[in-house]
Write a structure and sequence with these properties.
Layout (H helix, E strand, L loop, with lengths): L13 E5 L3 H12 L3 E6 L4 H8 L3 E5 L12 E4 L4 H13 L3 E4 L12 E5 L2 E5 L6 H14 L4 H18 L3 H12 L2 H7 L3 H13 L7 E6 L10 H9 L2 E4 L5 H4 L7 E4 L11 H13 L3 E6 L9 H8 L5 E5 L4 H9 L12 E5 L11 H4 L5 E5 L5 H10 L7 E6 L7 E6 L3 H7 L6 E5 L6 H4 L20
Parallel strand pairs: 1-2, 1-4, 2-3, 4-5, 8-11, 8-12, 9-10, 9-11, 13-14
Antiparallel strand pairs: 6-7, 14-17, 15-16, 15-17
Length: about 475
């Protein structure tokens, strides 16, 4: 992060602008809208500056820049068309440890002017730090269409109630839950319809109601890693939660999207790494919910496909804890799609099985015979450590040694790696390629289509399927 975004209160604060032309005029307008006290030095001025001086909004200094003009100023903007003057302003300000902006010269900027979306008092600022201003402007235009105009009046309304809410409702978590209820209520609809007195009455009525902390657990699937695969509901609940209880398999990019002030609790769930025991994870969820917290139980993939989501919800039921379940893109679907492997194809695979590579608690084996049938796809989760055993059992059950196999490491992520081989070489490939978790195994004839349908990331490390398989029928 090259710049720390800050919102500065400039009301009646002295700001110096060096330059009196059109570029300086744009910066001056922005500063005046923020209430700054302007001092402008230039040999000559655009008419708007003269008008502002007559209105008492700016003090014009006819002449040239000199370092003593910086005395007592909070900020300075160099906005002339003379590079040597702008450099002199920058050097003098830097020597005084003052914040300086040199227009259209990003290396000589101690602060920058972002693109602004104004829904006063809601302000959104966007910046590329001077590297891609057109892209920043396009983002602003996009957001302008998404953010309704009633956000400003809504923020002003709740701002008038802030002290009342703080006096009546004790504790940050309880107040946050109250405001979540307000923003999900008809108060918003009233403001949108410009029925402001009615909105105020409705908000007052909500505040007068008995306030009670109600704990809830959101069991949310985070998908296989790409944050753009998150559902809208998953993102909404990640932002609402007081606490996020997450697994190692949730990618760092997705963890960046949770609420900044949420408590984070990692419970592991990754092959070869320390994990919190499942019963202890269940108890964490119970204790937090009974304390009135909103908990996002964030899981890689889908919570109901090898995610133990069902077990955790069963633990909540005896305590009458409210819960929601948000499905996610399971690793099989996400990783296969990003690798260019259709899990089913009418010419190559008419069925698909999802299997876990972890042994069951009683030590019983999966039905290897059912997985040995040709023209079906088998997707094995958490199969790295058991790769040799999986290879041996499938071959023993009759699956052809030449059956195509894909090993997908970090599927859907920027670090995605695809290794293709045949079933008879599976264990050797896992070893020689030093495959790391998270990784998924896809076994079946559809893997031969990978070279043709590949679209995301690097090409596979191995290319053993030079010719497509003969189609059936």
């Amino acid at each position: 992060m090259q710049y720390l975004p800050l919102f500065v209160k400039l009301t009646d604060k002295p700001v110096l602008i060096v330059g009196g032309g059109s570029v300086a005029l744009r910066k001056a307008g922005t500063l005046l809208s923020a209430g700054a006290k302007l001092f402008v030095v230039s040999p000559e001025f655009s008419p708007e500056f003269t008008n502002w001086q007559q209105q008492g909004k700016a003090e014009l200094i006819t002449g040239y820049f000199s370092p003593e003009l910086l005395d007592g100023k909070l900020l300075v903007i160099a906005a002339t068309d003379n590079d040597s003057v702008n450099a002199a302003v920058y050097n003098a300000a830097t020597a005084r440890n003052m914040l300086v902006n040199t227009v259209d010269d990003q290396p000589k900027c101690g602060f920058i002017f972002p693109s602004i979306i104004d829904r006063n008092p809601i302000i959104i600022a966007i910046s590329s730090f001077g590297t891609a201003p057109v892209l920043a402007r396009r983002l602003r235009e996009k957001l302008e269409t998404l953010l309704p105009q009633h956000l400003g009046p809504l923020a002003q309304l709740v701002g008038r109630f802030r002290d009342q809410v703080k006096a009546r409702i004790k504790g940050f978590a309880a107040r946050r839950q109250f405001w979540e209820k307000v923003f999900n209520s008809d108060v918003v609809r009233d403001v949108q319809a410009n029925q402001l007195p009615q909105a105020e009455q409705r908000l007052a009525a909500l505040l007068a109601e008995p306030q009670q902390l109600a704990g809830e657990v959101y069991v949310v699937g985070a998908g296989p890693g790409d944050p753009e695969l998150l559902t809208l509901k998953a993102l909404q609940l990640m932002q609402q939660a007081d606490v996020v209880v997450y697994d190692y398999l949730v990618s760092p990019e997705i963890m960046q999207l949770v609420r900044r002030d949420a408590e984070l609790i990692c419970v592991g769930k990754k092959a070869g790494a320390h994990s919190v025991a499942q019963r202890d994870t269940n108890q964490i969820l119970i204790d937090l919910a009974l304390a009135g917290k909103k908990i996002c139980r964030l899981k890689g993939g889908d919570p109901f496909i090898f995610g133990r989501g069902g077990e955790e919800i069963q633990a909540l039921l005896p305590h009458n804890i409210a819960f929601q379940v948000v499905p996610g893109v399971t690793a099989a679907a996400g990783c296969a799609a990003y690798a260019g492997i259709p899990l089913t194809h009418r010419d190559y695979a008419q069925s698909v099985q999802f299997v876990t590579g972890h042994c069951r608690p009683d030590g019983s084996e999966p039905d290897w015979q059912s997985m040995s049938t040709a023209n079906q796809t088998v997707v094995i989760y958490m199969g790295l450590m058991k790769a040799a055993h999986i290879q041996q059992q499938l071959l023993a059950a009759g699956r052809a040694a030449t059956t195509p196999v894909a090993i997908i490491e970090n599927g859907t992520r920027l670090q995605q790696r695809i290794i293709t081989t045949e079933l008879s070489e599976l264990a050797a490939k896992v070893s020689t390629e030093q495959v790391q978790s998270p990784a998924l195994l896809i076994i079946g004839e559809v893997v031969s289509l990978q070279r043709q349908l590949h679209w995301f990331g690097a090409r596979p490390n191995s290319a053993v399927f030079a010719q497509p398989l003969t189609r059936l029928g």
